[in-house]
Structure formats: structure tokens, C-alpha cells
Amino acid sequence: MIEISHVNKWYSPTFQVLTDCTTSVTKGEVVVVCGPSGSGKSTLIKCVNALEPFQEGDISVDGTKVNDPKTNLPKLRSRVGMVFQHFELFPHLKIIDNLCLAQQKVLGRSSDKAVAKGMQLLERVGLKEQAEKFPAQLSGGQQQRVAIARALAMDPIVMLFDEPTSALDPEMVSEVLDVMVDLAHEGMTMMVVTHEMGFARKVANRVIFMDRGEIVEDAPKEDFFGKPRSDRAQKFLSKIL
Ligand code: ADP
Ligand code: MG
């Protein structure tokens, strides 16, 4: 579903942020990406839906090359759900309108259909009662669940998460992770940047460890948690576990 092949990216001629990154995510797989701050995790995940350009290598999603100038990027992005650390809801729109906007503007769904889908997804993330509120009236955990529902409203074939719980108060982390665990169990293909190793242990198929722009480790979860090959991953794990 996602093929990342020998990707090199520079933010400036003297600063290479990604070095020869190669990995893939098959349909229904959940891959957790971890590593120290500044190691290139966000950059890599943004390259997958072409929010960041890269100079060398290839990435394709469901067979569509994201770095091909002929690729219809808005169309591709509409099939790749993305959830960020800071929710990024539209503050001036009610929750239900946050869920409907792209369904109508990008997918051309009727208002009735978009609302029905939006309400169904709000129910799924336990927020049906909040539909008429504005984002600022919700807790961080609720806003992040809305952001996930909004991404799901587009019927994505892949979901990308970039530290979806790291801006949340501790008591709100599990309500967001629970939604993500359900998604994983339903067979969604997911690439998740997170340091929540409990989540990784529960649902990840593989764990990727990045350091200084390189994929240092890419292993089945059992191997990664059993004994990471590299010193760098071992050191990292000993700090966060
Ligand atoms: P991570 O998500 O692992 O913390 P990032 O991908 O955000 O890492 O950043 C990797 C490196 O690239 C960091 O050194 C960061 O400062 C730098 N960086 C990130 N975004 C930009 C940008 N737009 N321009 C220049 N440097 C950037
Ligand atoms: Mg990041």
C-alpha cells in the first residue's frame, strides 16, 4: 500500500534530513515509527502524502507515485488520511461542519450524505452529542477524536498519524489510542509516529526506528521489543520504557 524507496531529502544544500529511507507498508498493516526528536519522522510521513517534496527516491501509495508530476495530488491526498499532533480542526466551524467540508468540496457528496456520514463517524468515536459545538468547546482528547473521524469521513485507504497523543494531557491519551486500536483491528492500513509503546505492542505489525534521518531498524514488533539490533534503538528504548 505504501512503498518508500531510497528516499533522500535535503532541507538545504547542507542539511540532509532523510538518508536512503526504504520501507513499505502492506495492506492492513500497522507500522509504528519511533525515534528521537529531530530524527526525521514527521518529514518522512509528510513525504508519503506529498506535503513535503523530496529530491531523490520514490514513494508510491496504492501504486500511485507521489513524486510523479503527473499525479493528481489532491485526489491522492483525499485517500490518505492524516492526523497531526495539534488536531488542526477548523476553529470557526462546528464539529459536524468540520467533518462535512472536505466530503462536499473534494468528494462532491451532497450535504445530506456528508452529514449522515459525519454523524455516523462521530458516533463511532463517541462524540455524537458534540456535533453542534465548536472545536474550542471540546477537550484535547475529544478534538483529536474529531480529527480522526474527519479523516475517516473521506474513506481513506491509508491513515497516517504524526504523534497524535503527544499534545494531550495524560488522562486523554487512552481515549484517542482506543479509537486507533479499533481502527487497526478493523484492518486499516496505518503508519503511526508515536512513542506510545503500549499501542505499538498491542497493534503494530512492525516498528521502524529512525535516527538522524536514517531508518536504523525496521523489524517485526516481537523482534524490536525483544532485542533491538542497534545500540541506538536499545538506548532509545531504555529511555522511554
Ligand atoms: P521528528 O519528527 O523526528 O522530530 P522532523 O522531521 O520534524 O523530525 O525534523 C527533522 C529535522 O529537520 C530536524 O532537525 C528539524 O529541525 C528539521 N526540519 C524540519 N522541518 C524543517 C523545515 N521545514 N525546514 C528546515 N528544517 C526542518
Ligand atoms: Mg515530529
Automatic annotation (TrEMBL):
InterPro entries to which the protein is assigned, alphabetical: AAA+_ATPase, ABC_ATPase_HisP-typ, ABC_transporter-like_ATP-bd, ABC_transporter-like_CS, MetN_ABC_transporter-like, P-loop_NTPase
Recorded topology in the membrane: Peripheral membrane protein
Keyword presence, Signal: no
Keywords linked to the UniProt accession: Amino-acid transport, ATP-binding, Cell membrane, Membrane, Nucleotide-binding, Transport
Record's keyword annotation contains Cell cycle: no
Entry's Gene Ontology cellular component terms: plasma membrane
GO MF term set: ABC-type amino acid transporter activity; ATP binding; ATP hydrolysis activity
Pfam families per record: ABC_tran (PF00005)
Subcellular location, record wording: Cell membrane
ABC transporter domain: residues covered: 2-237
Family: Belongs to the ABC transporter superfamily.
Known role: Involved in beta-(1-->2)glucan export. Transmembrane domains (TMD) form a pore in the inner membrane and the ATP-binding domain (NBD) is responsible for energy generation.
Protein name, UniProt field: Arginine transporter ATP-binding subunit
Organism: Bradyrhizobium betae
